[in-house]
UniProtKB/TrEMBL annotation:
Protein name as it appears in the record: Chaperone protein DnaJ
Protein location: Cytoplasm
Span of domain J: 10-75
GO cellular component: a single term: cytoplasm
Gene: dnaJ
CXXCXGXG motif repeats: 173-180, 190-197, 212-219, 226-233
Subunit composition and interactions: Homodimer.
Phylogenetic lineage: Bacteria, Bacillati, Actinomycetota, Actinomycetes, Pseudonocardiales
Domain of life the protein comes from: Bacteria
HAMAP family found in the cross-reference section: DnaJ (MF_01152)
Zn finger residue spans: CR-type: 160-238
Annotated Zn(2+) 2 binding sites: C190, C193, C212, C215
Binding annotation for Zn(2+) 1: C173, C176, C226, C229
């Protein structure tokens, strides 16, 4: 996409957010729109597919802090980015000029009052760092980043897993290989700009470079566009990737797959794919950092007299000694039975003992408990409170 086309778009409007929206708001808006317009959810719906591409492109810019900063600066410079002409005070009175005039370097950039510096200011936004007209970087644009979601169960999150990931997203066209031309044909060098993608023209006392109108700044002309991608070199494809989820991944954590996002244009690098992991809670186990947690019901006799209980782990079971006189809520630690990460760190299993109170007692149990209560009256369970009550 040329500089003119990028600035002419309103990425904030595409995502339905304000220009001062936070990264979380931008991300939330993108994920909602991407789900609603995903090709898999709208088979054969060309309008939804175009919307999906548009919100992906917008998110690729606004989710990147550096790109967003440059984009915002460009919008501010051009009065929020219309694609038509702009009035320029002092440039021949009340005349106007096309915004494309500002994206190249002037032949007289070294002269006082030249505007070559403006090309450098915005060069980073379009993959160009003030290079000479005709440089390959002037046409290159890094591919947008793509985000998708996967859901795994608790055990997979703890131990790690390898998952197949099927997604539909913009990718290099498989028919033309990305050059945009119909198979059997090739793009030709633009005769207007001689393949540079830029043309120079004069306006008053100044000379300006701007993207070539004939080839749209690409340097190539496609006479026979590819039937699949229409000459863009990019089409929406369904592909299957293998994602390795590391052991100990957290819920809502993102995994980055470098170079698996949207393909770049003009030979630029592809964007990245971010896989957001959602972990289904376990019915018994919980997690605290690298430690696994479990609450185990125990009887009053077990915590009072002490004993040995059997506790489950994700790998099997362990025997755990309960000291006599243990209070309800005490946490016992089983070393090495937590999460083992590839960096060598490992957690433990934290076992919380919770005294289970029976809801019903038969006659023998009730009689035994009443005898125990009578015999244990000398053991006041609340001595501080009892002392306070006596004072009052």
């Amino acid at each position: 996409m040329s500089a003119r086309e990028w600035i002419g778009k309103d990425f904030y409007r595409e995502l339905g957010v304000s220009s001062d929206a936070s990264q979380d708001e931008i991300k939330k808006a993108y994920r909602k729109l991407a789900r609603e317009n995903h090709p898999d959810a709208n088979p054969g719906n060309a309008e939804a597919e175009q919307k999906f591409k548009a919100v992906s492109e917008a998110y690729g810019v606004l989710s990147d802090a550096a790109k967003r900063k440059e984009y915002d600066e460009a919008r501010q410079l051009f009065g929020s980015g219309g694609a038509g002409g702009f009035g320029f005070p002092g440039a021949g009175g009340g005349g106007s000029f096309d915004m494309g005039d500002l994206f190249g370097q002037t032949a007289g950039a070294g002269q006082a009052g030249g505007f070559g510096g403006l090309g450098d200011i915005l060069g980073g936004l379009f993959g160009r760092r003030g290079g000479a007209p005709g440089a390959a970087g002037a046409r290159g644009q890094r591919g947008a980043d793509v985000e998708t979601d996967v859901r795994i169960d608790f055990t997979e999150a703890v131990k790690g897993a390898t998952l197949p990931l099927r997604l539909s997203s913009p990718a290099t066209c498989g028919t033309c290989g990305g050059n945009g031309a119909k198979p059997g044909t090739s793009p030709r060098t633009c005769p207007t700009c001689n393949g540079s993608g830029l043309v120079s023209r004069s306006q008053g006392a100044f000379a300006f470079s701007e993207p070539c109108r004939d080839c749209r700044g690409r340097g190539k002309i496609i006479d026979n566009p590819c039937p699949e991608c229409g000459g863009e070199g990019i089409s929406t494809r369904t592909r299957t990737l293998t994602v390795r989820v590391p052991a100990g991944v957290d819920d809502n954590q993102r995994i980055r797959l470098a170079g698996q996002g949207e393909p770049g244009r003009g030979g630029a690098a592809a964007g990245d794919l971010y896989v957001r992991v959602h972990v289904t809670p376990h019915r018994v186990f919980g997690r605290s950092g690298n430690d696994l947690t479990i609450t185990v019901p125990v009887s009053f006799a077990e915590v009072t007299l002490g004993g040995t209980i059997t506790v489950p782990t994700l790998d099997g079971k362990v025997s755990l000694k309960v000291p006599s006189g243990t209070n309800s809520g005490r946490v016992l630690r089983v070393r090495g039975k937590g999460i083992h990460k590839r960096d060598g760190t490992q957690g433990d299993l934290l076992v919380t003992l919770q005294v289970a109170v029976p809801s019903r007692l038969d006659a023998a149990e009730k009689e035994a408990l009443e005898s125990f209560a009578e015999a244990s009256k000398k053991h006041d369970p609340r001595p501080e409170i009892t002392e306070m009550l006596k004072e009052r």
